[in-house]
Design brief:
The structure is a homotetramer of 337-residue chains. By secondary structure, chain A is an alpha/beta fold. Chain A contains 13 helices and nine strands. At the B-D interface, helix 13 of B face helix 13 of D. Strand 9 of chain A pairs antiparallel with strand 9 of chain B, so a sheet runs across the interface.
């Protein structure tokens, strides 16, 4: 939900996704070849609990093809993220924590500001604010904590700035105002995302060192949260919690026609016509038919409330482990269960 | 959401709707004629704030064609239901109140049990429980209220029994248990519904004197709440808050193909094939493609939280006005704003 | 908060407590001797995480002196209950689970109905409903679960009936209605309590096999939940979450005067007068001064929201462990974290 | 709850109040005369729905005696604030709106930042955040609204910064950061307060042009929100929602002893001793007896959740009316019911 979140913005006529792994799939579909995209490197790894995919955009060519800034995009995928399974979740907290550490450079004295983006009144958009509730904030305890404990924690602050429809203020302005008071060494921004495939909903965590670029390329002037705009590195963490309805219809229809064609020779002329249509054109037709509702609909799973709570827990604890050097999983359970 | 709400049930291979007006539209599409269905009477009325449609199922033929019990189904439709507009909402409260009165037979001494069906943890399913929060309950005040006030109110009780996944108890059993203690003269059951058309979401209130038949015809054995099962008349009130994803895709695709055909002669063979496919068969294909997610997805508007709150207010106050003879809109504002 | 919860009831002119251990202390103060009360047996045990006190009321004499029914009252006391400390909480879950098992007689086929009393809209009264959210309900899964799992769980159902001010229905009537449909072998009722001492707030869990007797002796006619009224044994579990303001003032004043007297000889005449006043008379004076607010005030700790959530978790899991023979602490974490 | 809210601070050994009218009463008790305090002017007015009291602190002498900054403190008192009575609430919204206008200087182009102080997780402290939910924010709509509507609204933004225990950031720093980005012409800060008398809880609205001075004189170094610290005028609005337990006991005991003395000649020596004790000394004794709980307890009414919701509505709408020149009560109902 990075796009289209706060006020209505011009609709982007291509299937929507905030995931680099899906942007890569779409770009490959466009180039009609499974060859790796130019300027992009892909690394994958399978653990016993999840699939880890590292998409590295190396240069301007890769950035253009992918429609995303140069940098690292690491994705953790697992159906277990949707389950109520503390054992696998603890393992994934550790994995996410390691990747957060790998994507950032912190020293003992670093101050970190964690920012929960999104609207707490809309369940699938409330991931960021829910994570903030579970972050171990310590910045105000400096000088109060016993020296021994003080050594094992970094200085962490956390805010949920809300969305423009609630505050009347561009979210980036609030964050920039706070950053200029706090001078943190790192900003971690958490946001709910949109995916193209329903199977990835609530089953994917994406981390990136490129910042958060809400609505990139949609003619939307909202301020990007990155090193450029804030003056400090920004680590973005997100989970797709919704599929855009038009995207779902588009993809379902493609798969449906494929299946129908596979079963019959008839209709091949029509199928070819459909295939010859620009992807964008086809999508635009769906969007037109769904109008005026398209920007307002979302597709989400029934159990989204409970799952978002658990995902917030996983992400918050991964951050807690990554940021506080002396903290163990047992401490985490003690502090935040 | 009457269907498929509590535990997974076999999927019904036809576009899903809980609205009698949509069941009628579907039946007319099936009979490929806009002639009125046999055994069904339709009356419509346009007021300055809403469209009122009265579908009357007269006999077994009508009931079979419509897939719904014999009885009255009154629908209030208005885009204003989604807006934050107290003036039109007050008018619609009055209209709904009058139809509630018309569909029931109460005397001064009647006791009414209002039941809020649905799961309070899932926003679009929480309509019923939210209505219950705003019902003026008076049954426990009998003998305590001053005689003068006592005359202007009926004896009203209200419960939200939860859903089977939360309680482990068939919802109908809880209600039957309470009914047998209370011996009410009427049960009013409020529930969130599924519609076929996104335009009707949160823009429609359906009232019916036939009771609530969750999952009728889906091979689902859950207890129907009606005069038969509870021993007292049941008035059902509902608002569609979700569209089933497969239904949305099915309908969008139909409209899309129509539009494509209108623009070209090509593909007509394929189109004819699609048209020659049984509606059910086509729908089954979509459901298969969406599997294993189909029962779990729903499509709902972004602002569903705020709109459901307002709809709950409208319905609760319509019930408050209908049940308590001496209560004015000013009292309503005083008690429940 | 068992007393005075639903509608205003005549005020009881003695310091309020729902805890048997405090009723015993008060009775001893009355008899001005630390000798054990007649008809009462006391057993205490200190573990590494908590103090366990077993008050056994043996006969009518003990019942009269204590103002409580004949039976067993077991109290777990620990300051750690207020902390965010999963390790000690897991130990206390086990201890509570063992005492639940000890106070009840279940066999493999037993069905248990867990009832969460109290008003979910008032934080310190919401303990019961919050416990219900975390109970493993299984009754609806009978015949669905694989045989192997089915063996390790008992049939458990759970409801939060609300309070009379919300439903218009005597809470006992709702429960009796459901009991008559379900025919459980045991009812477990959870409720928030009032204590006399602030130090016991959120630091005490009381279990009793005598049922829940809301407002006993207060001229309050509400239905007691016990074997007599429901036809099945009732196990009551509660935690004190509030101190009544008049009780707090009364006790503080007593301690204050003691301290002032200890420091000076002056004022002893006044002190003696105060001492010669009937406890009840003194308390009545405080209640009169606090009027008309007395029934409406409560004293509670600032962090009550977070602490009640954790207490609900401890109690729910103690019940889950006690009821389901094959369930381990690891399963508990898996299902309910 | 301005004092002692965020982290534990040294306890102030005098009855606690954030209300100027109570600070004045206390100062008069100290000077043992009902003569007006030097440097203070009092004006009162009774309307048909409320009592309006204007305390004006004219100079340093008044400020010292009152323990509050020079400026205006206007209090609206009415038992009706606690009732569910829309008619009187609409009248009080108008009265509060007029006084807000009177205490501030705005022109057509003014930008206003409304700040909701307090912790949204603690019901009686959640007033500020709840008001923010109902403020008509318009700042982001500039240039989007039709010219006609644009004329009738001022530019309003709104934030709930949270408390230091949640964010790790001094609340004043967040606000100052946002103020430096927004450059508003006025800040309106809403906060829950502590009163001395239970009768004033939820029955009093205080407005002041002196800013918010949390914990003034308590040795607490937290940043004051006023023209000095923020560079723009600050209007403070607050409602007392809690009484500090030690204050309640102190005052109840005073009244109790008075009553006992009135009934008897005995004990007068003790009474004189109590009277001869310094108020501070007596209060310190109570605080010592209540330790270690004193900072953690609060006394609040049972129905605080519902009442705080309504108070938030009254205050938000008073602000909406005061800030937007072209807005009527009907618009208010339309936008925010």
């Amino acid at each position: 939900m990075q796009k289209n979140k706060e006020i209505d913005i011009p609709w982007n006529f291509s299937p929507r996704t905030d995931l680099a792994i899906e942007a890569r799939e779409l770009a490959q579909e466009e180039q009609k070849s499974s060859e790796e995209l130019e300027g992009v490197i892909l690394q994958t790894k399978q653990t016993n609990v999840c699939q880890i995919t590292h998409v590295k955009i190396l240069n301007e060519t890769g950035s253009q093809t992918m429609g995303k800034p140069i940098g690292n995009y690491i994705t953790i995928e697992s159906e277990l993220l949707k389950e109520n399974d503390i054992t696998s979740h603890e393992q994934m907290m550790q994995i996410v924590a390691e990747h957060i550490a790998g994507l950032t450079k912190l020293n003992k004295k670093s101050t970190i500001l964690v920012v929960g983006l999104g609207n707490w009144n809309i369940t699938p958009d409330a991931l960021g604010p829910k994570v903030i509730e579970k972050i171990l904030v310590t910045r105000h305890l400096d000088g109060i904590l016993p020296e021994e404990i003080n050594k094992s924690v970094r200085s962490v602050a956390a805010i949920s700035p809300g969305v423009m429809g609630i505050t009347g203020i561009e979210t980036g302005e609030i964050i920039k105002g706070v950053v200029e008071k706090l001078h943190p060494d790192l900003v971690i921004a958490i946001d709910a995302l949109a995916a193209r495939k329903f199977s990835r909903i609530n089953a994917t965590i994406q981390m990136s060192d490129t910042g958060v670029a809400p609505g990139a390329g949609v003619g939307n002037k909202r301020m990007t949260l990155d090193k450029n705009s804030l003056g400090v590195p920004v680590l973005a963490l997100g989970v797709p919690t919704v599929v855009d309805a038009a995207t779902l219809i588009n993809d379902t229809m493609d798969r449906m026609l494929e299946e129908m064609i596979a079963q019959t020779k008839e209709g091949s002329a029509f199928y070819e016509m459909l295939q010859s249509m620009d992807t964008e054109e086809k999508y635009r037709l769906i969007v037109e038919i769904l109008n005026p509702y398209v920007g307002n609909m979302f597709v989400t799973p029934k159990e989204v409330d409970a799952v978002v709570d658990r995902l917030a827990n996983i992400i918050a604890n991964a951050i807690n482990i990554a940021l506080h050097p002396g903290i163990t999983m047992e401490d985490i359970n003690r502090f935040t269960y």
